[in-house]
Amino acid sequence: MDLKGKTILLTGATGGIGEAIARQLTECGSRLILVGRSDKNLKYMARELRLARNNGFTLQADIATHAGRETIRTALIALENPIDVLINCAGVSLFGFLEDNQPADIEKMINTNVTATILLTQQVLPFLNKDQGRILIVGSSFGALGFPGFAAYCASKFALRGFAEALRRELADSKMQVAHIAPRATNTRLNSDAVVELNDALGNNVDEPEDVALAVENLLSMRNIHDVNLGWPERLFLRINAVFPRLIDKALRGKLPLIRSFVRKERDVNTKHVTINPV
To answer: Could you give the residue numbers annotated as active site?
Structure first.
């Protein structure tokens, strides 16, 4: 697909990866509809990227709410032509052992990462170009590799990968295409200090958002899009985990004491932010 002039709806546009994708696609001459929660950040991006020159615009909307999704639907109704690409990039993270995760935080994450993405995709489907429409879901390598300290987060990313796979098969007799792209660890504001230090301690490779954005451009530019796992040796780990999961179980068990120390650090930081009212 030649991305020049194509209308692309991008959620999570003010996040680290989302912002990098917006910049990358601007260079391609795409018409962008940027969705995010921060009106201030959206206005800044609209000016800096000069969205108006390609008839692009921003939408302040929280896709995790019905009102936010309705804002997007209303804007799509007003468009003269269908959109060519939907990029689901909105998401939040959650680090810590399950026993320490707050129920409200788990509910918020599942609602944002999974429920909102599914409902928004369902809502956008009628507005996609029937001849060449594309849906790209930005997931994570943790959508195929369960990792200690990220149980709930992994659950949300596994769900997204399954959603993309099933939807692709539902649309197999149409001209619309669906793909899932899975970045490895990426340097964004979603990472807490403890997560950054854990990646360093484990020797994990960490990409910049611009690396992911370039991969998104390359994928969308293909004639036929397909699922992509980013990074080596991460792709190898995912393949081993799919065939010989007990090998990965054993490897990660040896890392548990180290992971636990950073989980404890995260818990201590979060505890300091809790205000205890005197009796």
So the answer is: 153, 157
Starting at the edge strand found earlier in the chain, the sheet holding 134-138 runs 57-60, 31-36, 7-10, 85-88, 134-138, 177-182, 228-229
**CB-based contact 83:57 (threshold 8 Å):** no
pLDDT digits (tens, 9 = 90+) for 75-86: 999 998 999 999
Domains and CATH numbers, the chain: 7-272 (3.40.50.720)
Describe the crossing of helices 209-220 and 16-27 by its angle, rounded to 10 degrees.
50
pLDDT of residue 272: 64
Q: Which secondary structure element, helix H or strand E, spans residue 85, and what is its range? A: strand 85-88
For 43, half-sphere exposure in the C-beta direction (CA atoms, 13 angstrom radius) is 3
Segment 96-124 mean pLDDT: 97
What is the arithmetic mean of pLDDT over 244-251? 96
Tokens 């690409």 belong to residue: 85
